[in-house]
Amino acid sequence: MKIAVTFDKENGNIFQHFGHTENFKFYDIEGSEIKSSEVINTNGQGHGALGGFLKDNGAEVLICGGIGSGAQNALTGAGIKFFAGVTGSADEAVKNYLAGKLEFNPDPHCDHHGHEHHGHNCGHHSCN
Q1: Is residue 128 part of a domain?
Q2: Total-model pTM
Q3: C-alpha to C-alpha distance for 28 and 19, rounded to whole angstroms
Q4: Any idea what the CATH number is for the domain that residue 47 is in?
Q5: pLDDT in tens, 43-96
Q6: What is the count of structural domains for the chain?
Q7: How far apart are CA 8 and CA 21, in angstroms?
Q8: Segments forming the whole domain that contains residue 117
């Protein structure tokens, strides 16, 4: 199995705005163990293109912070399970997922108040 996490290279934490993610950390999983991981840059792809990027890189599961409904639909269409509203260390989130202890928001949404986001605004928000 391969798990992808929105990744902030500066601090190793989960990046909190899916559509603006510059890097994903991909984890190769065997059984319930992390066998390897690598950080892959999106090369400027954003929003709708990220579902295809994740699928092309073999992701079956995504762990992320905030995510809007359009991206949720794209991931569902690509057959990728997602766990949103997660904060903190990317590595710890994957370990918690594998242990069945990941805390996430089962009904993530995006309240729109600022950043441009597919022709609408999504900033000064709580995308989770």
Answers
A1: no
A2: 0.83
A3: 23
A4: 3.30.420.130
A5: 876 666 898 899 999 999 999 999 998 889 889 999 999 999 999 999 999 999
A6: 1
A7: 8
A8: 2-121
